[in-house]
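Need tokens for this chain, all 287 residues.
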Amino acid sequence: MGRIAYVNGRFVPHRDAYVHIEDRGYQLADAVYEVWALFDGKLADAEGHFVRLERSLSELSIAMPMSRAALTVVLREAVRRNRVRDGLLYLQVSRGVAPRDHAFPNPPVRPAVVITAKALDRTAVEAKAAKGITVVTTPENRWGRCDIKTVGLLPNAMAKQKAREAGAGEAWFVDELGFVTEGASSNAWIVGQDGRLRTRDTNANILRGVTRLTLMDVIRDAGLEVDERPFTPEEATQASEAFITGAGSLVLPVIAVDGKPVGKGGVGPVAMRLRRLYIERARATAI
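Here are the structure tokens for all 287 residues:
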């Protein structure tokens, strides 16, 4: 069966899914998005993603396109129609369609909604985690509101391309003080030689990762300690372990930064333990 997309009230074949040429998301990146991990056909970390979606829309003065209850029904239907058990669910909400003008349309127009779902090969994903990835660093060059999950991702796309050309799995942005902010599509973590975890605090200009938030609870329940403070790429290579988190990566070990090994250069036990515990939590609480 071919993939099915939801576009502005209709489920249509993926090949026939189109948005208007004057959709402000297309012309001005005037849109936000969310990505849910799917386990057994259910939405992981659902509450966190809904809360962040509502916050992003509010920060940009875009109305919720429908109630949360109605949106949940549509999201689940997209998953059902695509017959996805394990995978990713993508939601995008733009300000809507209006004649091109930088200022917001007045009166406001109806927000535009796009939803897609795709399956992932969990066996391949777990093999990748068992091997770990490498990262490269790149200067921070994004706007000052990375806390809003907008579709304006050109700096992120360029960073990902840099990583791909280097044979790496992710890129970490580094600010003017030399500290890692976050990854192009993930939050960044290290495990110190003392066993304490460290990740950038959300008061910095980073995305408030939903996987990151859930993992904080997992870490506390596991009896581990975490410091929300920045670290440099050098500190990452001197740490015992490093990893990234996100809806797509879940908890994914990092074994090298800019060609330098992290710790002993292999996948560490803390990251793999947290990956297992996170997946257990996500499966148990998915809706």
